[in-house]
């Protein structure tokens, strides 16, 4: 029996499509921006300079980029390509007799109102108050909702994963026990006709630097990435090294969790990668380990004199050396006699503050920790029991979903490539 891709990821895509980000709605086009004329003609559909200027503003605001003349100039070509793709997607939806109903747009608006604390029914008034044209915002929402309908009704049914492929992948994963798998997000900028490689790389590097400077990776991906994962904030999911393009694998292998890569050339474009997590296949996630935890806390304020801190640390050190086993820990808690000390119960290591997570996780049962400083105290911890989750490999259903999602991504990329090749596109903005 073949496995069919479930619509879980499509549901996330639709949600991402309608959550455009309220910040994208609160800025108007910059003073002096060009608002007349034609930026491009896509088959028989016109993209105006006003459309382009407003989309640049939306991108800058939503992604949290620096709003400078250089930023606006560098983003115009990328945003124009995004608008061209949207035109192609809406035209394809019309060809397939797919429409976005007023009810669907109403649902999207209500969701925006709820998520952004706008009074019910106040979406249009909000736009008017901000001086924004309702038609421009509605155009973007309509394009995203229409394309999700195209993908879900015409591409998703084509995605099936035969049992032999699932069996082969399960065997390969089992043989990979002990190797890493990676939780990745991506931004993909494809090379366009007549576009210089150095210009595209410069733009990708500028986005990487903006993200490192505080811009949201997911928001940047939604606005700038041209890959299918853009609808899901660039989320690729869990992948093994051998599933990556040869150019990307060594980059991911060398990255630290949380890092943003420099631009990587692959698949006729540039990737920016974010490594969100790394796990060993077949091993339990250490953050899911549950411990029965007890502590002694000696209160010391963050701004306490150095002498007070030294006294607390010296006492904590003597406790750590003297206490052996949980019975002695209970006796010491009573002796210390403050409400901050005591039995913390069953705690997941992943729920502990980051500064405590690794030193507590490394403790043997019944052995006290070295003194650990927080903003309010010096702590001594002890684990009295440890419970590790089962070390399970991905299930058959999880593997089928991963393979199906990879196939859907390939289909969507091919679909958009064919639409671009078949279109007559006249770009006039420079």
Please describe what this structure looks like:
By secondary structure, the chain is an alpha+beta fold. Among the domains are: about 1-160 and about 425-430, Porin chaperone SurA, peptide-binding domain (Triger factor/SurA peptide-binding fold, Orthogonal Bundle); about 285-385, Chitinase A, domain 3 (Roll). It contains 14 helices and 13 strands. The strands form 4 sheets. It has a 4-stranded antiparallel sheet with strand order 6-5-8-7, with helices on one face. A 4-stranded antiparallel sheet has the order 10-9-12-11, covered by helices on one side. Helix 2 packs across helix 3, helix 2 packs antiparallel against helix 9 and helix 3 crosses helix 6. The protein is elongated and about 80 Å long. It starts with a strand and ends with a strand. About 30% of the residues are buried. Mean pLDDT is about 85; it is low at about 5-35.
Topology:
Blueprint: E1 3-4, H1 8-18, E2 38-42, E3 45-48, H2 49-63, H3 69-95, H4 102-115, H5 123-129, H6 134-155, E4 160-161, H7 163-175, E5 180-190, H8 197-212, H9 217-224, E6 235-240, H10 249-254, E7 264-265, E8 269-280, E9 290-299, H11 306-322, H12 325-336, E10 342-348, H13 354-361, E11 372-373, E12 377-387, H14 396-422, E13 425-427
Antiparallel strand pairs: 1-4, 2-3, 2-13, 5-6, 5-8, 7-8, 9-10, 9-12, 11-12
């Amino acid at each position: 029996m073949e496995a069919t891709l479930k619509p879980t990821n499509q549901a996330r895509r639709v949600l991402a499509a309608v959550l455009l980000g309220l910040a994208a709605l609160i800025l108007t086009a910059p003073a002096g921006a060009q608002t007349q004329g034609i930026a491009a003609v896509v088959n028989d559909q016109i993209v105006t300079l006003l459309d382009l200027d407003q989309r640049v503003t939306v991108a800058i605001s939503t992604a949290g980029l620096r709003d400078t003349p250089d930023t606006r100039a560098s983003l115009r070509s990328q945003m124009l390509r995004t608008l061209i793709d949207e035109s192609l997607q809406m035209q394809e939806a019309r060809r397939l007799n797919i429409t976005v109903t007023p009810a669907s747009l109403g649902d999207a608006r209500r969701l925006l109102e709820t998520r952004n604390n706008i009074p019910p029914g106040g979406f249009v008034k909000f736009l008017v108050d901000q001086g924004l044209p309702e038609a421009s915002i509605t155009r973007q929402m309509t394009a995203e909702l229409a394309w999700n309908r195209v993908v879900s009704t015409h591409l998703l049914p084509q995605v099936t994963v035969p049992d032999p492929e699932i069996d082969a992948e399960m065997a390969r994963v089992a043989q990979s026990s002990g190797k890493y798998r990676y939780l990745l997000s991506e931004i993909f900028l494809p090379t366009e006709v007549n576009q210089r490689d150095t210009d595209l790389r410069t733009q990708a590097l500028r986005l990487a630097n903006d993200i490192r400077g505080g811009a949201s990776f997911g928001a940047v991906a939604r606005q700038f990435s041209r890959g299918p994962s853009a609808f899901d904030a660039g989320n690729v999911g869990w992948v093994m090294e051998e599933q990556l393009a040869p150019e990307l694998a060594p980059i991911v292998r060398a990255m630290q969790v949380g890092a943003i890569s420099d631009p990587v050339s692959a698949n006729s474009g540039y990737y920016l990668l974010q490594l969100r997590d790394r796990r060993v296949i077949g091993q339990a996630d250490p953050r899911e380990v549950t411990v029965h935890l007890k502590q002694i806390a000696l209160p010391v304020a963050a701004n306490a004199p150095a002498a007070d801190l030294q006294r607390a640390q010296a006492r904590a050190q003597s406790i750590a050396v003297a206490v052996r086993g949980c019975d002695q820990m209970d006796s010491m808690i009573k002796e210390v006699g403050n409400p901050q000390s005591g039995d913390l119960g069953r705690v997941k290591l992943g729920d502990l503050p980051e500064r405590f997570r690794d030193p507590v996780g490394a403790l043997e049962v019944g052995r006290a920790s070295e003194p650990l400083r927080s903003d309010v105290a010096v702590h001594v911890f002890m684990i009295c029991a440890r419970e590790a989750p089962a070390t399970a490999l991905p299930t058959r259903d999880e593997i089928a979903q991963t393979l199906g999602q990879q196939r859907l991504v390939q289909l969507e990329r091919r679909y958009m490539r064919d639409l671009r090749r078949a279109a007559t596109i006249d770009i006039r903005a420079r």
